[in-house]
Amino acid sequence: MSENVFTKAVHAGEAHVRSDYGVVDSIQSSSAFTFADTAALLAMLNGEHARDEYARYGSPNLRSVELKLAALEASESAIIFSSGMSALALLFLTVLRPGDQLLYFDSCYHRTRQFCSEYLRAFGIRCTAIGTNDFEALAEACDDRTRLIFAELPTNPHLTVIDLDRLVALAKAKGIQTCIDSTLAGPTNIQPILSGVDYVVHSATKYLGGHNDLLAGVLCGSEADLLPVRNLNGILGAIPSPHTAHMLQRGLKTLPLRLAQQNKSGLAIAQFLALHPRVQKVYYPGLETHPTYNLARKHLKGFGGLISFELKGDAQETGRFIDALKIPRIGPSLGGVESLVEQPYLMSFYKTDPEVRKSLGIADSLVRLAVGIEDTDDLIADLTQAFRQLEN
Ligand SMILES: Cc1ncc(COP(=O)(O)O)c(C=O)c1O
Asked: In terms of Cα–Cα distance, which of 182, 173, 190 is closest to 139?
C-alpha cells in the first residue's frame, strides 16, 4: 500500500476481491454469521482464522472501515463506535478503576468534561482538570494512580494547540498513557501516534464522515492496548450500523480533498476576519496572533476549517450577524461539506452559570464558524454582506 494519504484514503482496508466484482464493498446487514459445519465453528473458536459470528463483536463493513482509519492514523489498530463520545467513554471505562486518576486539559468539548466530572467521578475515578498547556501543574498532579492524560488537539472551541512533545515526554517519564482527541484537526493534518501518543480518538461525525449525515467515533492505538476496549464494546455494542460504516467508508475516500479545501478556506477566512473592523478577536491556529501559533506550525500540516471569533458587539448583534449569513446555516457540528455557524453561548452554554461560561472563555459575542467545501470567495462575500447588514 502506498504511503500517500490520497491513495490510502481510497484503498486502505478494502480487499478489492469481491464475489460480485463490485468496485466498492456491499453493505452486509447480517446481525449473525453462519458456519458451514461444526468443524468450521471449531476452527474459528480455536483461533485458526479470525472472524466474527455476531455483529456486536464486529462485521465486514465495520472491519474494513477500521482498517482504513488505522491506515490514515498510522496506528496498528482502530475500533469504530456509534459516536465520538462512546469511543471516549469506553476507553475511560476500560483503563480507569476506582481510585485511579485521569488528568485532562480543561479546554475541551463540554460533554467530555461533563462525562469526566459527573459520571466518572461517581465511579470513584479521580478526574482532575489542568489548565491547558500548564505543564508544571500537570507534572505536580501526577501520582502513582494516574493512568491516563487526555487532551484535545486543537481544543474546542478556542483552537489551542497543545505542546504534544512535552506532553508525551512527561507522560512517558512517569509511565502514564496518553490520549489525544484530534477531531478538530483530522488525520491528514496530524497523526499523534507518530509523536508517541498511545490513543487517538475522533468524533467521526465531523471531518471523517464529512457530510453531516452520520454519527460515529473511532479509537486508534496498538492492537494490545485496544483489545480490552474491543472486548468491553463486544459486551456493550456501542457500534454503528453497517450502513453508517459504509457511508463513513465512502466519506473517508474524499477526506484529503475535502480537508485541503477546508484548510485553504479556513486560513483565508481567518485572515479576512482578523482585518475586519467589526471583529474583536479571531481564534485560528494558523494566524500568527494565536497564542499557540508556533505549536500549530510544528504539529499541524493544515489548520482546518474551524474558526472562532468574537464580534465587537453584544449577544443580540451577534445573533443578527449570524442570521444575516446566507451560506452557513445555524447548526452545532463541524467538518462537513456544508458550512455551519453557531453562537456557542446559545448552542452549548445557554443554561450554564454565566461565571462558569466566562471562566471557559465563552463570550456572548463568540461565533464558531465551521467552514465547509463551498467556494472560498463565496464564503468571504457572504460574511462581508452580513457585516454590512450590521450597519443598517
Ligand atoms: C472535540 C470533540 N470530541 C468529541 C466529540 C463527540 O463526538 P460525537 O458527537 O460523535 O459523539 C465532539 C462533538 O462535537 C467534539 O467536538
From this structure: 173
Contact by Cβ (8 Å): 364, 315: yes
Please choose from 115, 156, 244 the residue to mutate so as to test ligand 1's pocket, defined by most ligand atoms within 8 A of CB: 156
Cα angle value 30/34/39 (rounded, 5°): 160
Beta-carbon contacts of 96 under 8 Å, excluding residues fewer than 6 positions away, are: 102, 120, 123, 125, 147, 148
Furthest C-alpha separation in the chain:
78
Identity of the residue numbered 166: R
Cell reading at 212: 453531516
Distance in Å, CA 67 to ligand 1 centroid: 21
Nearest to 290 by CA among 313, 273, 314: 273
Answer whether the bond into residue 154 is a cis peptide, omega within 30°: yes
Distance 84 CA to ligand 1 centre (A): 5
CA of 203 to the centre of ligand 1 (A): 5
Query: Is ligand 1 within 6 A of the CB of residue 244?
Result: no
Q: Which domains does the chain have, with CATH numbers?
A: 5-253 (3.40.640.10), 255-390 (3.90.1150.10)
Indicate if ligand 1 lies below 6 Å from the C-beta of 152: yes
Q: What is the pLDDT of residues 187-208, one digit of tens each?
A: 899 999 999 999 999 999 999 9
C-alpha closest to that of 53 among 77, 29, 30: 30
Shortest-distance Cα residue to atom 13 of ligand 1: 203
- Report the distance separating Cα 231 and Cα 95, nearest Å: 12
Q: Which H or E element spans position 217?
A: strand 217-221
198 three-class SS: coil
Place of cell 467515533: 217
Does ligand 1 have an atom closer than 6 angstroms to the CB of 79? no
386 in Cβ contact with 363 (< 8 Å): no
The 10s digit of each residue's pLDDT in 271-314 is 999 999 999 999 999 999 999 999 999 999 999 999 999 999 99
pTM greater than 0.85: yes
Strands 126-130 and 77-81: unpaired
Please give the grid coordinates belonging to residue 323: 442570521
What does DSSP say about strands 177-181 and 340-342: parallel, antiparallel, or unpaired?
A: unpaired
